[in-house]
Queue: 2 jobs
Job 1
Amino acid sequence: MIRVENVSKQLNKTRALKNVSLEVNKGDIISLIGPSGSGKSTLLRCIHGLEHVDTGKIYMDNEWMNPDDEKKFRTQRNRMGFVFQHFNLFPNMSVLQNCKLAQVEVLNKTDEEAEKIALEYLDKVGLLEKKDAYPNNLSGGQKQRVAIAGILAIEPDIIIFDESTSMLDPQGKASINAQIRKLHEEKNITILSITHDMEEVAQSENVIVLENGEIAMQGTPMDIFKQEDKLAKMQLDIPFALKISKELKKRGIFKENVCRLDEVVEKLCRLK
Ligand code: ADP
C-alpha cells in the first residue's frame, strides 16, 4: 500500500532520514519506535506529504506520490489521516464543528452528512455530551479524543498517529486503542503509529525501530523485544507483560515467552 524507497531528508543541518526504505501493506498495524530525535516524526510527515523528501520516492498502491502532480498528490494524501501529537483543534469552533471540518473540506461532504458521521464518532470516543463545548473548556485528553474522532470521521485508508495517545490517561488510552482496533477489524484500515508505550507496541503486528535516521530493526514485536540489549542502548524498554513472562519462564512455569498481558493471563489460566 505504501512503499518508501531510499528516502533521505535534511532538516537544517540534521540528516533526519538517511536512505530509509520500508513497505506498509494494506491492513498492517505498525509501530514506529526509536530514541527521541531518531527521525520518527520526519518519516511519518514525509509519508503523509507534509514534508517533501530530498531524495528517494514514496509510492501509494504502486503509484509515485509526486508533489509536483498536485491534483493526484492531493487525492493520495486525502486517503491518509494524520493525528498530531499536539491536537490541531480550532478554538473558535465547537467540538462538533471541529469534527465536521475535515469531512467538509477534504471530502466535500454536505453539512448534514458530516454532522451525522461526526456525531457517530464523537459517541465512539465517548464525547457526545461535549459536542457543543469549545476546545478551551476540555481537558488535554478530551481534546485529543476530539482530534482523533475528527480524523476517524474521514474514514481514511491509512491513519497515522504521531504519539497521539501519549496525553491520555490509561483508561482513555485503552478506550481509544480499542476503538482504533475495531475500525481496523471492520474496515481493514492501515495503522502507522509512533509510540513510546511498549504495551501498545506489543499489540501491533510489526515494529520498525529507527536510530539516527536509519532503520535499526524491523520485525514482529517479539523479534524486536528479544533484542533487549540493543533496545536498552537506545533507552527503550520491553513491555511489563514480557518481564512477567520472563520471570515465569525462569521459574519453569512458562515454556516460552509472550509479550502481551492478555497472553500472560491466557497462559496462566491454562495452567490450572
Ligand atoms: P523523532 O520523531 O524521532 O523524535 P524527529 O523526526 O522529530 O525525531 O527529528 C529528527 C531530527 O531532525 C532530530 O535531530 C531533530 O532535532 C531534527 N529536526 C526535526 N525537526 C526539525 C526542524 N524543523 N528543523 C531542524 N531540525 C529538525
Job 2
Amino acid sequence: MPLPKAELHLHIEGTLEPELAFALAARNGITLPWTDTEALREAYRFQDLQSFLDLYYELMAVLRTEQDFADLADAYLARAAAQGVRHAEIFFDPQAHLARGVDMATVVEGLWRALGTSRERHGVSTRLILCFLRDESAASALDTLRLAEPFLDRITGVGLDSAEVGHPPAAFREVYEAAAALGLRRVAHAGEEGPPEYITEALDVLGIERVDHGLRCVEDPELVARLVRDRVPLTLCPLSNVRLRTVDTLADHPLPAMLDAGLMCTVNSDDPAYFGGYAGDNFDAVQATLGLTGERLRELARNSFLASFLEDDEELRASYLAEVEAYEFGAAVS
Ligand code: ADE
Ligand code: ZN
C-alpha cells in the first residue's frame, strides 16, 4: 500500500497522456502533427519551461467537449488513487481554453463530472484551483475571474502559472484582491525559473498562502527564514525540475537541505504526463535518489495534508493525518 498523500500542484491539462490525446483527437476529428504516440513522446525533450509550455498549449487542442474534460480528470484521478493520493487540489488554465473557443462552462462542468464523483469512484477528495496565465494581461485575468463567478461553488482558489521570467506577480494585485473578496484561496507559481524576489512579491502583493515550486528561495537566506517562521508551504515538483532543467539531476535537488532548514515542503507532480511520473513516482524518486528516510517521507505526506485547503472539512483532514501517522513503511525504506 502506498503512503497516503495529498497532491497540491497538479495541472489537469498536464495529465494528458499521449494515448488519451490521440483518442480525443480521433473523437473530435482533429489531426495531430505527430504520426503516433511514440512520435509524440519523442517531442518530450525540454530545454526549459517555455519549450514545455509550447507543446502543452498545442496539445490542448484535443480538449473540446465537457466529456473530454471529464475523461481527462477521471483518468488522472484513477492514476493518482493507485499511487496513494487521497486528496487532490487541481489547477486548470481556463484562458488557454477560452482562447480556442471553449467556454468556461464546458471546462468547469466537464471537470466537475469527474471531480464530483471522485470520492465515491476513486476514494480521492478534490478541490479546483483556477490559474491565471501570467504571460497574458491583468485585464484578461480579471475578465476570466468574472467568467468564473457563476461557478464559484466548484472553485476553491486561484493560482498564477505559465512563463515566469519577465512576468513578476505584482501585475496581478487587483485580480488577487478581487479573488480574496470572493472568498477564494490564493496560491501562485514563484521561484520555479524566476528569482527569489518573485516569491517575496507574491507573498507581499498577492497575499498567497502557498508557494508553487518556490525552489529558488534557497538563494535568499532571509526569505528562507521568513518561510520557515511563517510555515509557508512550498509545493515542490522534483521530476518536473529535472525535465525542465531547473536542476541538473535529481541528485542535485535541494529538497533534503530544504527539509533540514525547516521549510514546509511538499512533493507533487506538476504535469505528470510530460515529466515522467505521478505523485507516487515523485515520492519514489526522491526516496531512491536523495535517500530520504521513512520519517522524512512521512513528514512530506503530513505536510501535504496540513497545507491543503481542507478548512471546510477538518474531520476529513484529521482522518488523512491519522492514516499518515499509522502508515508502516516496508523494509526497502529505512
Ligand atoms: N503550467 C503548466 N505547468 C507549469 C509549470 N511547471 N510552470 C508554470 N506554468 C505551468
Ligand atoms: Zn506548475
